[in-house]
Each structure stands twice: as C-alpha cells, then as structure tokens.
Amino acid sequence: MRQVTDEPDQAVANDTPYEQVTRGIRIRVFPQYSDDQSTPDEGYYFWTYTVDITNESEETVQLKSRLWRITDANGRTEEVRGPGVIGQTPVIPPGQSFTYTSGCPLPTPSGIMVGSYQMTDEEGELFDVTIPAFSLDSPYAVRSVN
User: Is the Cβ–Cβ distance between 3 and 103 less than 8 Å?
Assistant: First the structure.
C-alpha cells in the first residue's frame, strides 16, 4: 500500500488498467489472479487488485466509503459496503494519488467487480465516484466466442 503521493506506482506502471474519471477523480484498477492464494480443486479462486485514485480536480477530496458489486461466473452477486478502504479514509489533495491493494475470493474461476466510492469535497458535499467494471479472470476460466 502507498500513501498519498504525486509519483506514479512503478509496480503497476506497465500494466493496462481499467479506468474511469468522475468529477476529476481518476480511478485506475489493476486486477491480478493470485495462483498461490487459490485452490481451484476446492473451488476457491483469489484475485488481488490495485486501485490508484488520482485527484485531477482543483480541490482536496476525502474518500469516505466504498460500495462493491462482485459477480461470479454463475451470476451470483454480492454487495460489499463499508467505510473507507483498507481501514483508511484518505484525504487526496489536487494533483496527488492514493494507491492501495486488496483482494477478492470467488467460488468460480472468473467474475466481475464494479462499484463506487463516496467522497466529500472541501465544502463537505458528498459525491459518488465510479469504479469501472473489471474482469476477474483466471487460467481456469472456460472461454467461449459469442
């Protein structure tokens, strides 16, 4: 995990992110299947995902809460809500970023995540920032052409 900074995260700089901008807040997500934390023969698949939140607006913002919708390959959806991310409610000044890594288990070899962060601006106004939908793919997922 990296705190608020204005330098790019070199660990994920060469990956292609899922990306979305809302009100000048750029969200970039880099999911990765974690083979060493998965046990496919027991129906347990695990992904890590790194989220980079960059404030491209003109005002300081604070991340207050999160909402995730996680859907597995069988179409089962779970909603996860809570304060902040990884136990923090970061304040992000203009031109700076907050990056964190978390994880997601599924009972299927693929799935999708999408969500939003609730933030406040300098005036205390709450607003939602979209987290782009991103695929959770593993080498065990069956692929088909539609």
Answer: no
Rounded Cα distance, 81 and 78, in Å: 10
Rg value, the chain, Cα: 16
Task: Looking at the chain, list the stretches that DSSP marks H as alpha helix, in order from N- to C-terminal side.
Answer: none
CB atoms inside a 10 Å sphere around CB 124: 7
Using alpha carbons, select from 48, 31, 43, 23 the residue that is nearest to residue 104. 48
Cα diameter, the chain:
52
Q: Which two tokens stand for residue 41?
A: 């023969």
Please say whether the beta carbons of 71 and 123 come within 8 A.
no
Average pLDDT over every residue of 77-105:
97
pLDDT at 24 over 80: yes
Domains (range + CATH), the chain: 2-137 (2.60.40.1470)
Sign of torsion over alpha carbons 18, 87, 63, 91: negative
For the entire predicted model, the pTM comes to: 0.85
For 96-121, the pLDDT digits (tens) are 999 999 999 999 999 999 999 999 99
